[in-house]
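User: Hi! I have a protein structure encoded as tokens and I'd like to know what sequence might fold into it. I'm fairly new to this, so please keep things simple.
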């Protein structure tokens, strides 16, 4: 077994959160979806809420991911035009 003396350092806190958030993360070339949606977001919800979300998406004939992307886009619109 090979051991390494190198320590992993924690990432430094970004000085400019907007720039840090907008910086694309490297990803393998997985096609169009990978190019459009490169960040993964994980949240904890109750099993009951998860069920309601899945039923709502099924009734609308869309995926949960697409439904939540639309919801988040409406709630957090791109306001780069008004940014200073």
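Assistant: Happy to help. Inverse folding works backwards from shape to sequence: for each of the 84 positions I chose a residue that suits the local structure. Here it is:
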């Amino acid at each position: 077994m090979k051991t390494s003396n190198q320590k992993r350092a924690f990432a430094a806190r970004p000085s400019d959160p907007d720039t840090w958030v907008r910086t694309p993360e490297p990803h393998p070339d997985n096609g169009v979806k990978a190019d459009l949606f490169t960040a993964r977001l994980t949240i904890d919800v109750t099993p009951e809420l998860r069920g309601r979300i899945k039923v709502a998406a099924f009734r609308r004939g869309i995926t949960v991911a697409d439904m939540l992307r639309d919801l988040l886009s409406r709630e957090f619109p791109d306001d780069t035009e008004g940014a200073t």
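A useful reference point when you look it over: The chain is about 45% helix and 0% strand. Feel free to ask if any position seems puzzling.
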